[in-house]
Design brief:
Helix content is 6%, strand content 39%. The protein has one helix and 13 strands. It has one helix at residues 32-40; strands at residues 9-16, 23-30, 61-66, 73-75, 81-84, 91-92, 103-108, 111-116, 123-125, 128-130, 132-134, 140-143, 146-151.
Amino acid sequence: MLSKIKPSLLFICKLKSMLSKIQVFIIIIVSMDEIKKTLFDPPKPVIEKEYVPRTKRTRPYLLVLEGNLKGKEFQILKEPFIIGRDKTNDIIIDEPLVSRRHASIYFRDGAYRLKDLGSTNGTFLNGERISDSRLKDKDKIQIAYTVLQFFIGALDF
């Protein structure tokens, strides 16, 4: 098998055993292609989940664009859908600027709505601070450093 490999570079490592005073030589055969790949093509960062839009949705969902949960999707399966720092919320944002129960999403009069639950630092919809506002497809919600995008999906009511 070694006869088929055409080494471009040989590395010889000399290991000394302190106890037995035996010298061991290890020859590692590496091709130049492997060295170039390692040196010039650094590994790409691992993305937890690459977002690929789905063609059919039956429920609205949130996609996290910025923050600790970046790339995660959350389907809105119940009402009210609570966002905040508390472990019992539907979306848990572990940031000090987020209130325990920061905001909620609910359905009323044929539309989804976003409501600030009296948070200290506010809830923002498309850059505007809100207290209670109607959500539209592709609206951006900001809570502290986390930015979420709302997608309506197809209503199944």
